[in-house]
Specification:
Blueprint: H1 3-17, H2 24-40, H3 45-59, H4 70-86, E1 101-107, H5 113-125, E2 131-136, H6 143-154, E3 158-159, H7 166-179, E4 184-189, H8 197-210, E5 214-220, H9 225-236, E6 242-246, H10 255-264, E7 268-272, E8 280-282, H11 285-292, H12 298-308, H13 311-321, H14 328-340, H15 344-350, H16 366-377, H17 381-385, H18 392-402, H19 406-435
Parallel strand pairs: 1-4, 1-5, 2-3, 2-4, 5-6, 6-7
Antiparallel strand pairs: 7-8
Helix pairs in contact: 1-2, 1-4, 2-3, 3-4, 4-11, 5-6, 7-8, 9-10, 14-16, 16-18, 18-19
Length: 437
């Protein structure tokens, strides 16, 4: 996410951090570079200009705090202004009021509304909400079938009666939710290739029928300023309470995320980062600003780990480190736990200072993880627990069974041996600490 802008900001910030003294000249030069990065990322030119003007106003004549490098002070100013641009604080979905609370999802065709509905339902389920998905997109062929499939994947019920108008589908879903004691209804509405009067009238009818607690506008984050323009149109009619940016795992330049709140005055509430129904994260301006500036996002990384990692399994592994040792079975368990947390490229964004410093050709390859898992699964139980028994003929059999090369098996075993040695050292240190040595 935001790989291009992160790398470019990293180059600019390296120069800023090396600044020995803040002066109007080097502040001007730094701001010119930052403005270039923002415009290349497709940030709205007015937003970029206002951002730079605010940075300059706060930096010029600013006293540098004792013990802090002048360049670091300027980086802090840029970070604070970026947080302000993105919205200062996280704004959660509003679900107060009479039950069931209705969330109306609107946007253009192809923006990812239907997939987002299932993602939102799954996200709310983690917060003990019980949602019903309503298929009120009556125009797109197979829209209801898509929602049913996504609902099944997310473990959510779907209301899709067929043959009714969009407003009657939405009203029927609310009645169905009450009957089934569900507390949330998420309504998927039809989109168009562009904003038109018929579309807006239909959404207005649905809005009047169900009186939503929240209206969320879904924008394709890869479309840049087009997403901002369509958001402006929807903000006027029918209006909305928050923004969802989808396809943020793509190669978009990130300008929509940096512009859309400033232009519409509405908060971004979610970032959608993949096709799976668990690929959704709440939008936190301060965390995203830190990721864009290469400072990482440890809080989100820990939250993702808490949701994905099996704590009991992790405790068992910790005990084995000081006991029987680290085996290939432990390794594959940990590999699967990490893969549950999401794509490695996203996890890299959350580690402070890592993304901007890893060359493009050295970025993690998800296929290599699949290859490693295939190699280990091609081993016998004995081989996984006692890798030292794997001789030449076994290596050839494992390579053949996993569809890889003998060199790949050799590399895995070398890497594992190095990791096993490190784990043994960690286990000994842990034992010494427990013994008070």
């Amino acid at each position: 996410m935001f790989e291009d802008i992160v790398r470019k900001f990293d180059g600019v910030l390296k120069k800023i951090r090396a600044t020995g003294k803040l002066s109007e000249q080097n502040i001007e030069e730094s701001c010119r570079e930052i403005r270039r990065v923002l415009l290349e990322a497709d940030v709205h030119y007015k937003v970029a200009s206002e951002f730079i003007a605010s940075v300059k106003a706060k930096a010029v004549g600013r006293d540098v705090t004792a013990g802090i490098q002048p360049g670091q002070m300027l980086v802090k100013i840029v970070h604070d202004e970026l947080v302000a641009l993105l919205g200062t604080a996280h704004v959660p979905v509003h679900l107060d009021g009479p039950l069931p609370a209705v969330v109306l999802v609107v946007g253009l065709q192809g923006s990812g509304k239907t997939t987002f509905c299932a993602k939102l339902g799954r996200h709310l389920a983690k917060r003990n909400r019980r949602a019903l998905l309503a298929a009120a997109d009556i125009h797109r062929p197979a829209a209801a079938e898509q929602l049913k499939r996504l609902g099944e994947d997310a473990g959510l019920p779907v209301y899709a009666p067929g043959g009714l108008s969009a407003d009657r589908v939405a009203a029927g879903a609310v009645a169905e939710a009450r009957k089934r004691s569900l507390d949330t209804v998420i309504v998927d509405t039809a989109g168009r290739l562009h904003v038109d009067a018929d579309m807006m009238e239909e959404i207005a009818a649905v809005k009047a029928a169900v009186k939503p607690a929240e209206i969320l506008f879904v924008a394709d984050g890869m479309t840049g300023q087009d997403a901002v323009k369509s958001a402006q149109a929807f903000a006027v009619n029918p209006g909305f309470d928050g923004i969802v940016l989808t396809k943020m795992d793509g190669d978009g330049r990130g300008g929509a995320a940096l512009s859309i709140r400033a232009v519409t005055g509405k908060p971004v509430k979610f970032l959608s980062t993949g096709e799976k129904t668990d690929a959704l994260e709440a939008f936190h301006p301060d965390r995203l600003a830190s990721r864009i500036l290469g400072m990482g996002d440890i809080v989100s990384l820990v939250e993702r780990a808490q949701e994905s990692v099996d704590r009991e399994q992790a405790e068992k592994l910790a005990k084995r480190l000081t006991g029987s040792g680290f085996t290939l079975e432990d390794f594959i368990d940990q590999l699967r736990q990490v893969r549950k947390m999401g794509p490695l490229s996203q996890l890299m964004d959350m580690v402070p200072g890592l993304r901007g410093r890893v060359p493009v050709n050295a970025a993690p390859d998800e296929k290599s993880l699949v290859r490693v898992e295939a190699i280990i699964l091609s081993m016998t139980v004995e081989e996984r627990r006692k890798p030292h028994v794997i001789d030449g003929s076994r290596r050839r059999r494992i390579a053949s069974g996993s569809g890889t090369r003998v060199q790949d098996v050799n590399q895995l075993l070398r890497d594992f041996q190095a990791m096993q040695t490190m784990m043994k050292r960690m286990g000994k240190l842990r034992g010494k600490r427990l013994a008070g040595i």
